[in-house]
Amino acid sequence: MQRESYSTVTQFCDDTSFRNWASTGRDEAGWATWLDANPDKAQLARQARMLILAIGRESPDMQAGEADEALAQTWSRIRQQEGGRVVRFAVWWRAAAAVLILGVGLVWYFSHKYPGRQRAAGLPGPAVSGANGVMALHNASRVARLINLEDGSTIILQPGSRLSYPVKFAADRREVHLSGEAFFEISKNRRRPFLVYTHDIVTEVVGTSFRIKAPDDQPEVEVFVKTGQVHVRQIKAGNTADKVVLLPNQSVSFLKSQHVFEKPETKDIPKRAIEYLNFDFTDAHVETIFAAIESAYGVTIEYPKDAFRDCYLSTSLADEPLLSKLKIVCESISSGTQFRMEGDRVIIESTGCN
């Protein structure tokens, strides 16, 4: 089919070259030039690109028609949510809200359709605990593992990676050791900095989200910051001038053999799903919010759907670990709403919204 005949969002989503451009910015097929020459298609293309980014990553194996199925299922969910509700938005705001809900719905759809690619999983059993009170974990599975620390921080440990940490952190600092790759969301506590030791470097934060990639068989260690500020330095270096400060969307590489840092001006770093997802919600149904959390962390959230039928929230969950996200949502629903975790299940108990 010729691009000029595209008349729906799903036709753009079904186009492999468009998905490549939308998710990576590489314009090998000349989409920017084509849109300049076809301004009547700009709005459809913009909406399609928003949905692809909301999915969290490009899905190169998505077959023609799968996007149509996802859209149909999501719109059905939206219609069920809005049944009987008095909508008070202006027309343009209703459209924007629908795009947000639809985007998260697609995240939900693809994370369930391709579970091995994006979802993390809760540890099925207890971690190995040493006599000195240190937990040692090895993710020998093929999927990422979700770890909740005693301070409320969250770690997503990638396959083949190892992590060790104390059962209870010290009063003045929180220290963990990593070999492999993990994504960290650290609870804020200025009096207790969080330190991650990987090979010959230490990454120090107060409260932020970042990813470290430090495989034993690779020549470098990479640190990428999503939110907040991160300090990276060599463990043996006594000179504080050697410290590298990273801000959001910045990265640094540590070359093991040369013991030097490289901080590129720009670098196209492949991101995990949780690093793409947007956790800012405006008048969103709680089902939409729970779907985003499920997609990001690989958990299953059980809640009283009938009691939450008319629950809509406006909140920002960005830069918050999993447990903090759940706490904020539950407190926003009502003072009597509580949650507990059982493995990779989140169980919410409530009598309804305020």
Automatic annotation (TrEMBL):
Residues 279-348 form the Protein FecR C-terminal domain. The chain crosses the membrane at residues 91-110. Residues 144-224 form the FecR protein domain. The keyword Transmembrane helix applies. GO terms for molecular function: sigma factor antagonist activity. Keywords: Membrane, Transmembrane, Transmembrane helix. Pfam families: FecR, FecR_C. This is Anti-FecI sigma factor, FecR. The lineage of its organism: Bacteria, Pseudomonadati, Bacteroidota, Cytophagia, Cytophagales.
